[in-house]
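FORM 12-B: Structure-to-Sequence Request
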């Protein structure tokens, strides 16, 4: 499953950006970035200075805005594309194949390990609830006597 997911990730990241975005989204992002960049960066001053001095002209708030906008846009694209990606990966079938490949002993060990942890938590919760209930009953009994 890991190999399949890694190969799918590699395949998806090798796709050009226009495969991920609708034409309107791409044009909107492009126009926004161009406008924002041309308005905010002093290119005439940057051209005549060494690259290591450029950070004095770039406002950290701009970087934060660009990152925020990029994350927002990429999350909306991911939300639209995620169902088709999950359908393509067919995780349900892959998980079923992996579970079927386990031996009975291995499955039994997994189930017992999980149930031991859960039963332990149930036991502790029962002890805590019993103590609280007993304490409340004791207080009520003392108040009535």
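FORM 12-B RESPONSE
SEQUENCE OUT:
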């Amino acid at each position: 499953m890991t190999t399949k997911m890694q190969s799918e990730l590699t395949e998806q990241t090798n796709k050009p950006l226009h495969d991920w975005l609708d034409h309107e989204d791409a044009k909107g992002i492009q126009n926004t970035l161009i406008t924002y960049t041309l308005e905010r960066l002093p290119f005439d001053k940057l051209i005549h200075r060494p690259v290591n001095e450029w950070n004095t002209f770039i406002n950290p708030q701009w970087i934060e805005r660009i990152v925020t906008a990029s994350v927002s846009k990429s999350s909306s694209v991911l939300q639209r594309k995620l169902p088709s990606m999950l359908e393509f990966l067919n995780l349900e079938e892959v998980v079923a194949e992996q579970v079927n490949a386990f031996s009975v002993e291995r499955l039994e060990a997994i189930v017992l390990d999980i149930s031991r942890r859960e039963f332990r938590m149930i036991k502790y919760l029962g002890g805590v609830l019993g103590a609280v209930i007993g304490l409340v009953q004791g207080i009520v009994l003392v108040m009535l006597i």
